[in-house]
Amino acid sequence: MARTTEMRLVELVSLRQDVSKVIEYLGKKGNFQLQAKKSKSSKKIASKDNNATEEKISSYFLDDRLIFEKLKSLIAYFNIADRDEDISLCEKASDSDRDEAKKIIELSENLKDRLDSLAAEEKRISDSYNEALSFSNLQVPYSELEHLSFLSIKVGKIVKDNYESLKNSLSANALIIPLGTDNSKIMAVSSKKGRFALETELKNAGFVPMNIPEDFKGIPEDLLVSLQTEMNSVRSNLEKLNEEKNNFIETHIEKIHALLASFSISIQIADVEESLEQTSMVYRITGWIPAEECRLFMKELDNLTEGRLAIREYLPHEVPSVLSGEEQVPVKLKYRKFVSAFERMIFSYGSPLYGTIDPTPFVAVFFTILFGVMFGDCGQGLVFLIMGILMALKVIKIGNWNKFAPIFIAIGVSSSIMGLITGEFFGTEKVLEPFAMFVTGLFGSPRAPILKVMPSSNPNSIFVIFGIFGATIALGFIIISVGLVVNFLNMCIQKKWGSAFFGKRGLSGILFYWYAIAFALRLAFLHHSPVLCDWIVIGITLFFAAFGEPFERLFDGERPVLEGGFGGLLIGGMVELIEVVSNYMSGTISFVRVGAFALAHAVLGFIIEMMSSKCGPIGGIFVLIIGNAIVVVLEGMIVAIQVIRLQYYEFFSKFFNETGKEFIPFKFCYK
Description:
four-stranded antiparallel beta sheet; alpha+beta; 8% strand; 21 helices; five-stranded antiparallel beta sheet
């Protein structure tokens, strides 16, 4: 049986000049889990040269963070698609990257300011024009137009030489319209909010209000024409500026994405560097790495630093924090092309302890078989198979789900095989009849399907159904037994002999479970009568399974042996006695649901086929497509949940007594 990956603790002592290169190597390699935290007693750098170096590095780090944030704001403002998360092939930011990033940020901020200013001006003029237009035909005295909600209108005289300077000073707040040919008479229009700035500038320009005739009504045509002209001009400029923005994005998008990755890496290097133990000259980096990768790891680091790196390797039992129980050795499961896709199912429940049995291969096999039995349809299985292949080839991209492509392929194959046996192909049994006739003809009289799951009026149908239930219970017995054996081996590996041999999950519990099942089968099928030996074996194994706690504590070296006294042992043992019997019985019988789902799946297929036959050719095809789509999505989800539940409660619970710590190596990811 495969065990968790053997680990080593590695200590790296790096010179200050090399530490960034070392951290960058670790982040790209992605096989080193950092252990050390920044020491509170880290020494301060004393020399002037070192102080200058530290200040320069610190300013770089701060500058890099600021540049990164500005680049993120840039892509958000210009609605540029963010880069993907994979930055493993990118390099940390260099001085040239910093210069180029600052240049791009400066260009973008200038463009942003012009866009914002022009957009605000366009809105102001558009609002003024729309309100003026709405009052253009209103026959009320002009003096009452001062009550407009948005516009403030001033008409009067100025010194004509002040016209241009007044227009320029109010370009952002008001519109100045000449009413004559010599620019001495003007109409000034602003928003209500800008009227104070308008009045100030008008006063500076020597503005003298003109008396408007009382019978003058409406909005002057010159005002509307001028507003329309100004609005069209601003919109034309805004279109040109948007075109400039699009050209800017198209020209710089690749470089912006590259810079985002580089500065993201630089920031992560800075974060790690700041957390390390350090002196004025060296940094200390400690962390865990798989033992099989240790030799190459050390060789590459030695070459990278040209021999300036001190490296020391420790076995787990040589690490004081591990021996004292303050730290757990991180657990890494050995990757396999097929099995590795099921690892997240393990870690979602808990991490195995370091050095114990890797349960992933069992999970992969059991999940595949259980899903196939419960979702047996050749056509629907092919849907999962094809989807898994397309996900593996990256033809279909569904975020992080593509890493589960092997699971889709596995359940697709198992469902298709079960479908061939039961004769189901998208809910109908006619398509696979020739195949079933050929296979069964090799062993006797031809018939279809090979195994009739759908209940019928045939008297033998009930025996088939009970046979399916019996087969699924037998499958449950195997899964539970494997879980118990894994637990026994794990306890032996950890040298917890008491837990290995006593208790409901120890050897005594295993023997009770196996003998009780064999005893029940003998009574049911071989018609044997119970003998004294049966009761002795069941009694002894059940006693040590239910009352095994003091024996566990005795052989595991825990004291006191009777933690709760004799009375506590008696009461606890009686409760445990009931739990042992009920737990094993209910756990085994719970696998009946696997057969129930297989029957339910067959019934759903029958219903879909019956409905399609009553809807005519075109309607029947429509019903088949919709019905099978619903079954694939909804029942596929339900079956997956049920399989995971069975794994969690009837398999994992047998050996997950305590959880370990998952190996999470330091590696660069885009943030």
